[in-house]
């Protein structure tokens, strides 16, 4: 035996040497040694966690196996347990200090529960399954789930994004008894494409262009091969994302309502379907619960998996066929934590045995813990009746996927894992749910200050300048890389209008078997969050809802998802920004009556550069799904006729903060416009009434770049020029010309209506901010905007469109 | 006995346009079976009028698009498929199905390789039909639109002259109005000498109804709700029904 001094922390305490698992004698270890062990095993467990585990085993009067420690590390990881959202946080905000007992419970779950109660029957499942379901019609439900895959995409952009999408598709396949994936969204945050080498202050960081190309291709190659249309998305560029790019992938699904509830019972067989298990993807869950540094680029590559979409396509075909035949009792995907979390989730209440000898391996020689926590892709775990097995085997053969019986549920309440004839893990999972509650401190102080409104000497030049900004330029080169029409149901496409290349607010999918449709959209405004995270939260919910309503969704039937990314939760200011954001989304969602049905968070998005740590700003993605009552309600964002009149819904604030204009003109700290939620909700309801009456030809939401940008984008359909007068624009008395043209106040929509309908529409908005803006024209092809007698803009739409279309195309 | 003609759609691992293609076939009148290729055997072609290879990424298309699917098809039903064609059967390949058909040597020789752009391209294109009497195109106007979605749709022949000969001689039944992917002769679809085997890169099943067009105001030359893709399948259906009643 070797000299004890040369032994690693694990070898020093390993008992009963067996080649495939070890018992680890932790009962006598001091805190420091426990931390050392956690670090050596890459468990990402804190001192408190390790001490808590030690106490549990002392109570059980035995020592853990390495498999058990790995299982607990997965179960307690930030990735799986969301311990920061469950933490007790002492928060010092503008209005004083408060103690938040779990952000999730207080601001997400309880708010949503109150909305569920207000709208009985709408939300059919939320928070406990892989994805939340809402009712589509009497027979069908739709669901949506979004995940992040940030750390893997930073290290290996193609594979990271590839498996990011692959993973969220499996979430849908594992939602209910197996939902059918029908559409995907992808949202990215990158450093600017024109980042220069000297702006990157660390070694081995991939240039933003390399990250962007790899990520887009990764999403493309998974989504396109799976035959799921990628219909919705966004890209944000900011220097703070150079080291920690963000990759959000989401997928929507549809399922018969009767197949949502799933239950595992003693005697059922646990089977795995799909790909084999290998050493790829070890410690993904725990790796994503820590920060990155240069060394991560070398040492953590094992945590990034390799995707094989065809393996998943075969498994998906199998799952959907098996569910249709009623052969599935319970299903979940193998995501973070691999079999340990899938089987754990399945057996946590019922208990049962998993036999690792049955697992089909990619290579021989894997030890027990490697098999049990490997995050190899394309695997689903099912619980089925024994009598269904023969038919399931036939289906697996038909779709050429591998089905393996792993074990069975036994009602014991104990998760037991055997390997090579020995029990390598025996845990009462109910005892493991109480990971120590974290106690954190947060604080937020106001970052905005009143600014002098800028003098706008050349509005035309300012508008042209905006159309070159990476925040605004067309995403067409990226969108066209995704098949957004496979399945043949994409009614409102991401690029549409008479020219087929104009931007849309939301996408709308027809649902096979229903006369109703589903709209999907995304909203994120990280620039707002830098100075006013509460306003960012409110405005993101507003924008997502507004885009869905604009495209034809019923404002009463919208559900949303919250995905958060942030840097270091132990930094009080950063955590404070998160708390403020969560409060903003909660207050807004409660008023809008749009429940959260699923959400996810990603922490430790900071990087140790040579000049110190760089964190991302708190970044919130709100994605949403809305029910569109009938196909006739689907409304695009592109101008359709030359005889139309245009009108604006919503109030224009004097505040320029958060806008692209403000950023480009050095006004980063200008106050950010607040969301006037009650008024906005009334506007959306009245808009929907107008839409149902057939008054609306098209609608575009006013977003990045403000009203002038929205008007130009509407006219990018090439159908007509625009003649606009802002003299009756509903706005703050002190709103500057810049705020009128380029401010980004939320809750605003520009609508196109037939001349004979304008008065009727105006009646619907009595008492609400609404004004006629002008008209479409065939006499020129310009965007002409006047303010009383002053001509503010007279720009050729073709020139603006060229700027808009070529801005990103040069880099991608 | 069912009066409607039967279509058999082969589903390979990675085929992903089978559901909407089956929906289109059913909409025009075909009885349609989607058959996973693992269950494919020669007897499956009995009573079938049309064999369809739909879009997707058969076996991932990692080797060369359509290559492995063509080998599997060859091995399972190679000779039967030739007989099927020789005895009046129809074969339609869409996108990946077109790629598979070219690999099966059922069409004039040519290869579908990476687009000149080096990218996957999901967009709508204008098409011109050069074979007015093709049973697949009879009810379509001279020029119409369909969406494409492919990374490897550039048709190349051994020499550019060969492609030109296809265009002049009618083998190139369908061409792009503009150069979208670098195809020689802008060829978008090929037919064999019998006219009963046809492959195209665009996706007719995605333009079944007018409402599927990107422009909400698109009306097209025909009355009613149907889009150009419908008329492709409908042409084929009528040709098959008429051929059956003649025989």
What would you say this structure looks like, in words?
The complex is a heterodimer of chains A (812) and B (247). With 812 residues, chain A is of the alpha+beta class. Chain A has 26 helices and 35 strands. In chain A, the strands form 8 sheets. Chain A has a 7-stranded mixed sheet with strand order 12-14-11-15-13-16-17. In chain A, strands 30-32-29-33-31-34-35 form a 7-stranded mixed sheet, sandwiched between helices. In chain A, helix 9 (208-226) links the parallel strand 8 and strand 9 (230-237). By secondary structure, chain B is an alpha/beta fold. Chain B has one domain (6-246): Rossmann fold. Chain B has helices spanning 18-28, 67-86, 96-103, 160-169, 228-246, and strands at 6-11, 31-36, 50-53, 90-94, 111-113, 121-129, 143-150, 154-156, 174-176, 187-191, 197-200. In chain B, the strands form 2 sheets. Chain B has a 9-stranded mixed sheet with strand order 2-1-3-4-11-10-9-6-7, sandwiched between helices. Chain B has a two-stranded antiparallel sheet with strand order 5-8. In chain B, strand 1, helix 1 (18-28) and strand 2 (31-36) form a beta-alpha-beta unit. Chain B is globular and about 45 Å long. Chain B starts with 5 loop residues before the first strand and ends with a helix. The mean pLDDT of chain B is 96. Chain A binds chain B through residues 220, 224-227, 308-310, 313-314, 317, 397-400, 479-489, 491, 493, 495-498, 500, 512, 631, 634, 636, 640, and chain B through 11, 13-14, 16-17, 19-20, 23-24, 36, 38-39, 55-57, 59-60, 119-124, 147, 149, 203, 205-206, 208, 211-212, 214-217.
């Amino acid at each position: 035996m070797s000299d004890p001094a040369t032994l690693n922390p694990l070898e020093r305490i390993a008992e009963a040497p067996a080649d495939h698992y070890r018992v680890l004698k932790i009962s006598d270890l001091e805190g420091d040694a426990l931390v050392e062990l956690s670090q050596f095993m890459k468990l990402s467990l804190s001192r408190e966690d390790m001490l808590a585990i030690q106490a549990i085993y002392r109570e059980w009067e035995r020592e853990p196996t390495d498999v058990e420690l790995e299982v607990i590390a997965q179960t307690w990881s930030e990735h799986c347990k969301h311990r920061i959202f469950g933490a007790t946080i002492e928060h010092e905000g503008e209005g004083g200090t408060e103690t938040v007992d779990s952000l999730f419970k207080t601001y997400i779950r309880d708010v949503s529960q109150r909305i569920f109660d207000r709208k009985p029957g709408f939300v059919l499942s939320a928070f406990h399954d892989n994805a939340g379901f809402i009712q589509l019609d009497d027979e069908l439900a739709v669901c949506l789930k979004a995940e992040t895959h940030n750390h893997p995409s930073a290290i290996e952009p193609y594979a990271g994004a590839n498996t990011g999408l692959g993973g969220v598709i499996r979430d849908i396949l594992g939602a209910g008894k197996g939902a059918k994936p029908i559409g995907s969204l992808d949202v990215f945050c990158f450093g600017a494409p024109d980042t220069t080498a000297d702006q990157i202050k660390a070694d081995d960081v991939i240039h933003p262009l390399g990250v962007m190309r790899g990520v887009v291709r990764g999403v493309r190659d998974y989504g396109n091969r799976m035959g799921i249309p990628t219909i919705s998305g966004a890209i944000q560029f900011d220097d703070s994302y150079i080291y920690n790019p963000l990759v959000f992938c989401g997928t929507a699904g549809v399922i018969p309502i009767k197949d949502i509830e799933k239950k595992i019972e003693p005697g059922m067989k646990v089977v795995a379907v799909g790909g084999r298990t290998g050493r790829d993807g070890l410690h993904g869950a725990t790796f994503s619960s820590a920060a990155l540094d240069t060394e991560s680029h070398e040492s953590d590559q094992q945590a990034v998996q390799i995707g094989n979409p065809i393996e998943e396509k075969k498994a998906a075909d199998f799952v959907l066929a098996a569910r249709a035949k009623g052969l599935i009792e319970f299903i979940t995907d193998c995501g973070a934590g691999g079999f340990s979390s899938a089987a754990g989730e399945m057996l946590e209440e019922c208990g049962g045995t998993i036999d690792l000898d049955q697992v089909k391996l990619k290579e021989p020689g894997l030890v027990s813990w490697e098999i049990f926590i490997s995050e190899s892709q394309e695997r689903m775990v099912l619980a089925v009746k024994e009598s269904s097995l023969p038919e399931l085997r036939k289906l697996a053969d038909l779709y050429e996927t591998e089905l393996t019986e792993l074990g069975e549920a036994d009602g014991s309440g104990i998760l037991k894992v055997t390997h090579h004839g020995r029990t390598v893990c025996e845990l009462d999972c109910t005892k493991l749910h109480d990971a120590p509650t974290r106690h954190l401190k947060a604080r937020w102080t106001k970052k905005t200050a009143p600014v002098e409104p800028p003098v706008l000497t050349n509005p035309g030049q300012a508008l042209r300048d905006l159309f070159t900004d990476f925040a605004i330029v067309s995403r067409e080169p990226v969108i066209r890389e995704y098949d957004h029409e496979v399945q043949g149901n994409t009614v409102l496409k991401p690029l549409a209008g008479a020219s087929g290349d104009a931007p849309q607010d939301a996408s709308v999918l027809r649902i096979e078997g229903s006369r109703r449709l589903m709209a999907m959209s995304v909203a994120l405004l990280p620039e707002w969050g830098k100075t006013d995270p509460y306003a960012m939260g409110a405005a993101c919910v507003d924008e997502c809802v507004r885009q869905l309503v604009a495209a034809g969704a019923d404002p009463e039937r919208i559900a949303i998802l919250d995905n958060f990314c942030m840097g270091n939760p132990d930094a009080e200011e950063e955590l404070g920004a998160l708390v403020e954001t969560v409060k903003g989304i909660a207050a807004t969602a409660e008023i809008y009556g749009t429940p959260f049905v699923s959400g996810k968070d990603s922490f430790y998005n900071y990087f140790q550069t040579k000049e110190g740590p760089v964190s991302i700003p708190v970044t919130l993605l709100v994605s949403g799904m809305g029910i569109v009552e009938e196909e006739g309600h689907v409304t695009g964002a592109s101008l359709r006729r030359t005889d139309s009149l245009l009108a604006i819904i919503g109030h224009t604030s004097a505040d320029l903060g958060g806008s692209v204009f403000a950023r480009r003109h050095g006004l980063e700290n200008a106050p950010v416009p607040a969301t006037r939620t009650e008024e906005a909700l009334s506007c959306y309801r009245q808009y929907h009434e107008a839409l149902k009456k057939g008054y609306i030809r098209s609608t575009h939401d006013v977003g990045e770049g403000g009203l002038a940008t929205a008007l130009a984008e509407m006219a990018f359909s090439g159908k007509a020029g625009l003649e606009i007068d802002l003299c009756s624009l509903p706005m703050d008395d002190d709103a500057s010309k810049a705020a009128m043209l380029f401010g980004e106040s939320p809750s605003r929509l520009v609508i196109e209506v037939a001349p004979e309908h304008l008065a009727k529409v105006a009646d619907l908005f009595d008492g609400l901010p609404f004004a006629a803006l002008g008209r479409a024209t065939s006499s020129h092809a310009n965007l002409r905007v006047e303010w009383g007698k002053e001509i503010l803009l007279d720009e050729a739409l073709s020139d603006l469109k060229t700027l808009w279309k070529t801005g990103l195309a040069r880099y991608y | 006995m069912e009066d409607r003609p039967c279509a058999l759609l082969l589903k390979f691992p990675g085929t992903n346009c089978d559901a909407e293609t089956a929906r289109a076939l059913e909409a025009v009148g075909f009885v349609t079976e989607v058959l996973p290729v693992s269950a494919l055997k020669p007897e499956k072609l009995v009573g079938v009028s049309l064999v369809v290879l739909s879009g997707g990424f058969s076996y991932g298309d990692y080797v060369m698009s359509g290559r492995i699917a063509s080998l599997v098809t060859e091995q399972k039903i190679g000779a039967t498929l030739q007989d099927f064609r020789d005895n009046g059967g129809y074969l339609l390949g869409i996108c990946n199905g077109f790629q598979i058909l070219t690999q099966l040597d059922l069409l004039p020789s040519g290869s579908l390789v990476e687009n000149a752009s080096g990218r996957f391209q999901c967009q709508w294109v204008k098409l011109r039909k050069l074979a007015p009497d093709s049973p697949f195109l009879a009810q379509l106007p001279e020029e119409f639109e369909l969406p494409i979605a492919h990374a490897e749709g550039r048709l190349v022949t051994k020499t550019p002259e060969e492609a030109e000969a296809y265009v002049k001689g009618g083998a190139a039944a369908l061409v792009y109005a503009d150069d979208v992917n670098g195809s020689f002769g802008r060829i978008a679809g090929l037919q064999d000498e019998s006219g009963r085997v046809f492959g195209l890169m665009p996706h007719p099943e995605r333009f079944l109804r007018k409402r599927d067009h990107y422009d909400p105001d698109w009306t097209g030359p025909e009355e009613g709700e149907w889009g150009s893709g419908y008329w492709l399948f409908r042409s084929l259906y009528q040709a098959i029904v008429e051929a059956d009643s003649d025989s």
